[in-house]
Amino acid sequence: MYAVFKVPGDKKDVIPKVISDETVSRQSSSIRDGDSLGFDKEMTYVLIEGNEDGVELAKELFSENDIDPMEDDQEVYEAIKKADEDAAAGVGTIFG
User: Fold this and answer.
1) Is the C or the N end of the chain the one with fewer CB within 10 Å?
2) N- to C-terminal Cα distance for the chain?
3) May I ask the CATH architecture of the domain 2-95?
4) DSSP states of 13-45
5) For residue 36, which of 73, 77, 79 has the smallest C-alpha distance?
6) Tens digits of per-residue pLDDT, 17-70?
């Protein structure tokens, strides 16, 4: 299970608060600037992926700050996963 959140620049301070929650921190999270993904440069995209309880809690915590999960998130999800894979491959070539 996963959720993608589109966080405006003026609410970026919410991200560390959410991902540092004890339950949410046990999930996989990825934070990317919109510009690096080819999307809105004023936004930060957050992917939370893991078990249902952790993802649902992340939704609740973001929602308390008027940030809802994206509904049409497939394109952003794929871009984040590709960026993560590219980063992992780059580290592998450095230390491989």
Assistant:
1) C
2) 31
3) 2-Layer Sandwich (3.30)
4) THHHHHHTSTTGGGSEEEEEEHHHHTS-TTEEE
5) 79
6) 999 999 999 999 999 999 999 999 999 999 999 999 999 999 999 999 999 999
